[in-house]
Amino acid sequence: MITLQLIGIGTGNPDHLTLQAVKALNAADLILIPHKGDEKADLAQLRQDICADVLTRDVEIAEFTLPVRDPVITDYIDRVNHWHDAIADCWMTEINARPGVQNVALLVWGDPSLYDSTLRIAERVSKRVDLQLNVVPGITSMQGLTAAHQIPLNALGGAFQVTTGRQLRDHGWPADADRLVIMLDGHCAFQTLEPEGIHIWWGGFVGMPNEITISGPLTEVAQKITETRQRAKDDHGWIMDIYILERG
Ligand SMILES: C[S@@+](CC[C@H](N)C(=O)[O-])C[C@H]1O[C@@H](n2cnc3c(N)ncnc32)[C@H](O)[C@@H]1O
């Protein structure tokens, strides 16, 4: 029986780590860290730094190269499913290489429940090995964004919808929603909206030392956001950003 711990680590600030996360990391005997290639090497390094900061005992840390999505598979869902299979294979290879290992931990960006597939990959692994799963919640980028702007996530008594840049671009503003949280948007999908009457709260690298925030009516700040985002991406090599839109 292998215990697999999926540990939410927050969004890039080592101080986001909860005491529960620290305990879970120290209970592990193997920590797996994905390596995503050069431009995101600092994300692997951040995970290494977190481990160095909080581990009070000797725990083996194994970096593995994250497989890339197969460009030959044209259907998006098929391509992602195939990719998850390949990542599950990587986890199994690392675990099988260490026959005595009983408690394996993965540091999950933000929280494992939010636009993250670690749980889906764990389900694949559970079909191959007797697995006990332990999920440790983490601070999400949504919470990082609302904290940075000092705003509540919902309007008074209101609902909000969390979706992706791709959904917003392809299907427009969802019916029945006045407040949206947009994640995974590489192309500033807010530019596809009629900006009149929309307010935006945008954040890049939220929670991190180079956090950037911009907010205001979309008519006034859209261009500033796209330019700032591009500059930050050029300077840093990559960017993660998230935003809230409200209409009416
Ligand atoms: C694969 S999802 C992971 C989300 C993560 N599980 C969470 O709880 O926030 C990656 C997306 O989360 C958002 N994100 C994650 N970390 C962020 C950060 N530090 N600053 C801004 N956006 C972030 C971005 O929208 C990014 O495209």
- End-to-end distance, in Å? 54 Å
Give the total of beta strands.
10
State which percent range the strand residues make up: 15-25%
The CATH first-level class of the largest domain comes to Alpha Beta
C-alpha-based Rg, rounded: 19 Å
Order of helices and strands: EHEHEHEHEHEHEEEHE
> How many domains make up the 3D coordinates?
2
Poorly predicted runs are none
- Mean pLDDT value: 95
Q: What order do the strands of the largest sheet run in, or round the barrel if closed? A: 3-2-4-1-5
**What is the H level of CATH, i.e. the homologous superfamily of the largest domain?**
Tetrapyrrole methylase, N-terminal domain
- What characterizes the major β-sheet? 5 strands, parallel
The percent of residues in helical segments reads: 25-40%
- How would you sum up the global shape? globular
Number of distinct helices: 7
CATH fold field value of the largest domain:
Cobalt-precorrin-4 Transmethylase, domain 1
Structural class: alpha/beta
CATH architecture of the largest domain: 3-Layer(aba) Sandwich
Q: Which small compounds were modeled alongside the protein?
A: S-adenosylmethionine
Please provide a written account of the structure.
This is Precorrin-6A synthase [deacetylating]. The model has no long low-confidence stretch (mean pLDDT 95). The longest helix is centred in the middle third of the chain and has 21 residues, at 76-96. The chain has 248 residues and is of the alpha/beta class. Helix 2 (41-54) links the parallel strand 2 (30-35) and strand 3 (60-65). It has helices at residues 19-27, 41-54, 76-96, 118-126, 141-149, 165-171, 218-236, and strands at residues 2-8, 30-35, 60-65, 103-108, 131-136, 161-164, 179-183, 198-204, 212-217, 241-247. Strands 3-2-4-1-5 form a 5-stranded parallel sheet, with helices on both faces. It is built from 7 helices and 10 strands. The chain has 2 domains: 2-136, 3-Layer(aba) Sandwich (Cobalt-precorrin-4 Transmethylase, domain 1), CATH 3.40.1010.10; 141-247, 2-Layer Sandwich (Methyltransferase, Cobalt-precorrin-4 Transmethylase, Domain 2). Helix 3 crosses helix 4 (118-126). The protein is 35% helix and 24% strand. S-adenosylmethionine binds at residues 11-12, 109-111, 114-116, 140-141, 144, 183-184, 203-208, 240-242.
